[in-house]
Amino acid sequence: MASHIKITKAPGTWSVRAGGAVLAESSDALELSEGDYDPVIYFPREDIAMAFLDKTDATSRCPHKGDASYYSVVTKSRTLENAAWSYEDPKDAVAQIKDHLAFYKMEEITVEQI
Question: Where is the DUF427 domain (predicted)?
Answer without folding.
Answer: 15-105
